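Researcher: Quick sanity check before group meeting.
Model: Go ahead. Protein one:
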Amino acid sequence: MSLKTERLLSRAKKLAKNGQVKEAKEIYSNIIKTFPNNLLARKEIKLLENKKVANPTQAQLDEVMRFYSSGEIEQALKYVESLIKDYPNEFLLFNICGACHSEIGSIEPAIENFKKAIALKINYSEAQFNLGVAFQKLNQLDNASEYYLQAINSQHAYPSAHNNLGIIFLNKGKIEAAVKSFEWAIAYSPNYAEAYNNLGSALQELKQFKNAKKQFEKACSINPNYAKAFHNLGILSEIINQPKDAVSRYERAVEIEPEFAEAYRNLSKVKKFKVKDPQINQIYLLYSGNKLNVADKARLGFALADINKSLGNHEDYIKYLNEGNRLRKKEIKYSFEESQSFHSIITKLFSSTQPIVQSSSKNTSDIKPIFIVGMPRSGTSLVEQIISSHNSVHGAGELLNFRNIITPILDNHLSKKNNAISEEDMLIIRKEYLDSLASLQAKETIITDKMPMNFRLLGFILSAIPDAKIIHLTRDPMATCWSNFNHYFTAGNGFSFDQVDLAKFYLLYQEMMTFWHKLFPNKIYDLNYENLTINQEEETQKLLEYCDLEWDENCLDFHNNQRAVLTASSAQVRKKIYQGSSEAWKQYEKNLQPLIKGLGAN
């Protein structure tokens, strides 16, 4: 007997053991055709032919799928488990059983069943995909990615696997990889509305707004009832300064999905409501009902605050603002101790050793970064709009790049209990950050990074990139904190949702900026927001001089700058500078006593 025949017999036996009788019989038949006297093959195929059928009937499968499709999941689960007792080697049954468990939220049993299905059938792409979904529900994204990739390797033409893998890449900040995954999903399924919507989100992250808009519009055209795509189109319309389009897209989203809380919140920011607007009553009814989770109720609280403010109902404005903030803090479970701990770690690190300052001669990049930092809502967006109006500057907006680069290095440092960041680490930080700016492919070499919270990382910035320009915005403490308190932040800034937390964090911020000024004298440029609004031209001249930029009249006409703005201040920075915004809190003074007391502002 040849070695090849032995291998075929071995494979057929393994298939038969795993319940894949049809495939095993086919191999035995082929062996007998070639070698009619192969007694082993004849014996095995006879045993299989005499053996009880090891597969469920089509009628049985149809019955279990009827239960599943009609939403009778418990009945489907009970039936499929009885079938598994009769057909313990049928991979399809384990996959269905896993899907039932997943549907009712029993994720661990679902995973167990999907793995059994894969053990019974090699390269079972559907079960691999389902395993990815199960792990994604547990937020075990690395495991989910692994099984999506296995499903794609087993069957590359698997649009859902590409799409779900893209979502994970998008959430991890691997935007280019996400774009490729969504493009594969669309290539295999040209009418896949969700993939177009997700591709739009990824391209928006890359600031490719024109292309992103096309993807959102394609998603909406494929599925005219796709509320999420209309909502995303509304957000993009705000970013590119098309407020009327934003209103119509948000309204379409809530028309399709009347309980879409986030769409109502965004609509409340851009629409000028009238007293008898039917949407107002719709929001009130939704808010007073018992269907909402904490997150959506918080969103609607902020929406009602905005609406009542625009209508001049100040008592209701404060009422819903307080309620929205309370619910938002409850939702995100913010603890001031976490902010305090991070502050202590950073100040201790830079107190224990002199920071390592790299020589500017080591700079192999032409890019010159300008960091604009300060408390959120202190005027950082306005200053970036001014500087980015200069013909030599690219405004990159709020970038997470520096924090993302720092995090693994800082975590490694803490795990090893080191007392200093190494020179090698600083060089890595410098290279990775400048490379991340280069990936923006801006024609200008001077690039602004307007992430306010980078004020906590100035030690790393000035140690790794000593030639960076640092602009620190200061503003009246009460004005700054009030502006934080009456704003809904979609991510981060958990300190802003409680007046006591807000005051404590502001004092922490002041302490940290004093620390950096002492450690890096003459390296941080302080710019006062109120002074800028009063003496615009003079302060702009000094600002440009600090940045080593020649005078450019466009910087005075910053409101005409058509660049996309992704921050909460997108509407304000498209208006001329106006004075008095720092006094707005005073009409609500009686409602802000915890904040006033916390700041010592009496």
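Researcher: Fine. The other one?
Model: Protein two, sequence then structure:
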Amino acid sequence: MTIKLTGHQWFSIILGCLLIYFIRTKRWTIRFAFVVFAFFLISYVLADPPDNRQTPVQPSSNITLQGRISSDIIHSNTYSSFNFQIKEQNTLIKVYYFPDQESSSDKKVKTLRHGSLCTVNGSFQTDLYASNPGEFDYGEFLSDQGIAGQFVISDMQKTNCEGQSFLQHLYDWRNQLLEQVNQHADSFTYGWINALLFGDRKQLPEATITLFQDWGLSHLLAISGLHVGLLLTCLYFFGLYVIQMTREQMQWIVALILPVYPVIAGAAPSVWRASILALLLILFKKWKVSLHTSSVLSFVFLAMVWTDPSIVNALAFQFSFIVTYAILFSKKIITDEIGNGWIILRISLISLLIILPLQLNAFYQFQPLTVLLNLMVIPYFSLFVLPILLIIICSVWAPFLVRGLSSFFYFIHDNFLQILHFIDQNLSYSWTVGTLPPVYIAVYYGILLVFFILLEKKMKLPAFFIGVLLAVSMMIISALPYFDSNGRITFLDMGQGDAIVVELPYRSGVFLIDAGAKMNRDFTSPSSTVYEQVIRPYLMSRGISRLDAIILSHGDTDHIGSVSYILEDYPVNYLITSSFFDKQTMEEYKHINNDFIYLEAMAGSQITIGDYQLDVLHPTADTGDSNENSLVFSASFGELTWLFTGDIGEESEQMLINMYPDLHTDVLKVAHHGSGTSTSDAFLKATMPQFSIISVGRENRYGHPDQEVVERLEQSGNTILRTDKHGAVTYIFNQRSGTFSTYLPYDTVYKQESGRNK
């Protein structure tokens, strides 16, 4: 039998051997530098998995696939999902099923089992990839895992599955255990047991997950070395002192449990790393193999990357290994002072510093006070939360004990979470930096290496100054936008609606023109989806932590739906609307955040932000129609004249032509998403734009943009840029020139200087 290894597997073997060799040296600086270099080499340069962006077959509304379920079945209140290996293809896809009210469909869902051979009917989902800067790229996320596409089952009745694998018995046992806990414990406790012991956070409130993410405490919600170590401690204590087993017997029991636990706990990279490391340490000790813990960790790294090269793209994998290596290499620094408080503080600081560039490139911000908060949170989770949850699981056969412990846990933990929310509301000083330049990352780790060397040599005063240099370097990176002579205008792809971010040169002003949203499924209120997935990530990726103004063209949800969410999270200096904006809506905004100044604008007025002036052209009077009352204004950016038109129709366009005979503009924000009621021939002849930008949703139910409008724009000879086709449209400009670019691939790059196309 011939074993064929991929290039990534060969590389991981070589890298793993080098890790083991270098880590054996006593020189700490060589070990640290090589590990950091190796991680970035494999994660960002050489570990480039095959491109899985293309779905294995052409998209269609009715496709039948045959294959095998290759993962646990994830069930939530709204969907079921699993990985699916297509038969006779080396292609893995993600399959979703969104159930309806039919009980027969629910019975079919129960036939989905790990290892089952199935026939499924449905369609591939397109549009999985990010179309805005800063937006989470779900398609790339799937691709990094070797998953070629996402498939949605349309008819569960046509799904037929047979058989199952051995692993399904483990999943069944886990589900039965959780079901018994759920019967006797309250939902609060059940959610935390599911998250901390079995890797499923779906039952935790979204506000709690966000709180832990914002404070850099997500590692406590993901099963890691802390959880595995405490689990082993409890097992040893129970086995040795309760049922009086020998140490030898307990070691073999633990050795049998460790390979199984990651399977039933979600199979996250961090739990695999911790479990395999603990298993190898136990076996090597029994076999009297003398290896440093960091060398054993390198074996684990080697095994995981060899088994699945794409795992290096997982942020959890990167965080888990680089933090563990850093702690192992920093043992002298950590144990230099006596006292558990000092040890926890130093571990927390080292963990934060070592992953800071990765964290910023992924989440764009961090909380400096996280280091201090860990002094309270880590001991609390270690000494109370995890132990009591383990006791509840072990007491599942004594319902009265589960109920009592569950109530006790709820009382203590709910109050603790309230304290965290209080700290978040009153002591939150998050530092929004945005993405980091690659050169700075190299400089950062160079300074950090010197910092650790000085600490290890107990040269505290020089280490202090290097630490200050490290902080100053981060401040400089944060301040770079204030020295940038370029500004930018970004039309975000938010679907059917408008959200335009304007960043003036030297960060002299940042303002939004509209901030739309989609409606919730019940059509009673705007959804937070656009804000959370598009607007907020973009602002954070640009290092924007406050807004000088929000200018709202009119009061439709697709233009103002995200404003309430922005006001909750961002300081806003001015909120500007026309005089005919809905007063009740404005009162609701003031109730959310009363720190902004409200300004009303009419035709003839001017809005000044930074060194730039916006000339308001419309409205002149209340037309009684929200769209026709849209705020219309012009401004010059990069020596191009821009005209922002909101959702006006032909009636308002004619009014503008009559009031402003010389309405020539270089860039036209096409009104009402390209609706047939706007952008008349007369208006185009009067404005004569070189570029037209249409904010419009893909395959929207309104049929925007209207084909006649598109034809009129094409016949006028200007370049059309559309968010549905090109993703976010960005114009980077300075005083003399500007450049248009699109987030999604486009055939041509448009440039102009001094208002002329080149």
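Researcher: One line on it for the slide.
Model: The chain is about 45% helix and 15% strand.
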